[in-house]
Write a structure and sequence with these properties.
The chain is of the alpha+beta class. The protein has two domains: about 110 residues, Phosphorylase Kinase, domain 1; about 220 residues, Transferase(Phosphotransferase), domain 1 (Orthogonal Bundle), CATH 1.10.510. The protein is built from twelve helices and 14 strands. The protein has a seven-stranded mixed sheet. Strands 11-12-14 form a three-stranded antiparallel sheet. A two-stranded antiparallel ribbon has the order 1-13. The radius of gyration is 21 Å and the shape is globular. Keywords: ATP-binding, Cell membrane, Disulfide bond, Glycoprotein, Kinase, Lectin, Membrane, Nucleotide-binding, Phosphoprotein, Receptor, Serine/threonine-protein kinase, Signal, Transferase, Transmembrane, Transmembrane helix. It is a single-pass type I membrane protein.
Length: about 350
Amino acid sequence: MALVFLQRHSKRRSSETQELDEGYAFLTAFRSKDLKIATKNFSDKLGSGGFGSVFKGTLPDMTVVAVKKLERVTQEQKQFRSEISTIGLIHHVNLVRLRGFCSEGAKQMLVYDFMRNGSLDRHLFRRNNSKILNWPQRYQIAIGTARGVAYLHEECRDCIIHCDIKPENILLDVDFHPKVADFGLAKLLGHEFSRVMTSMRGTVGYLAPEWTSGVYSYGMMLFELISGRRNLKQANDGRVWFFPTWAAKRVGSEGHSVLSILDDNLDGNANIEELNRAFKVACWCIQENETERPSMAQVVQILEGLLDVNRPPINRHLHALMQSEESTSFFSKRYLQSNT
């Protein structure tokens, strides 16, 4: 079955920083000791992942930044700087801006704009008494994220597949506008990126079977944005609760609309037309056959109401789970890993 559509941190040469030689890559090359001072010896940790940890820092001009210390970088400095200069050319309102970098032997760091409202997961899953996102905010986050990923896929000089779109990698500025983070890491980390991503298969819940598709992981993220629940959750007996399975059966059963899977914190307050669009997009994005998934540009058009889309089929693996004798929401880790 196929989709049916109707219709410059300013630059000054000083003892602290030096400009990158390539005039087109508006980035600053920082010294590691200066970033150590800016982050107070890397004391304020914002988060961590498979590719390194992120720390809050303040530059001499009082600009607040986020400093990512990369791990497992295997490229030589010349190649690393070349890839950095390419990433530095990428500018979009829904992508986190790279301000600069550090490349001193084994010390490889990236310096980004700081996002005051942190990552999306903090608000979706209510960490540290964070703000509950209302439906208009969630829908704009869905559209903005899709626009950022579409830019990476279709408007960059070289197509960049994110591979790791998840709430932790969607940052929110002071007005809760979304900014996609961690794009371009595949170019920086080379073969090590593939190794880390492969080791994450079957445990994260965002990776497509071929794992190189950002569309699939976007769809999985969209389920979480709608429901306010993690897609994967391990029960005490070792089984894994998979939200899309439950959602597919719930919405498909008599008497239940897509409102039945909406985050309880919203008390049913959502634009039903937008909610239906988001649910259908999520279902299309996680189709098992990669060719049946929409492009991210099409996702943007659907969410904006510029394209209509027919009812999506149920993913084959989800259908198999729904037909099993076990609970439709649970299955073993072994099953999950064998089918991702």
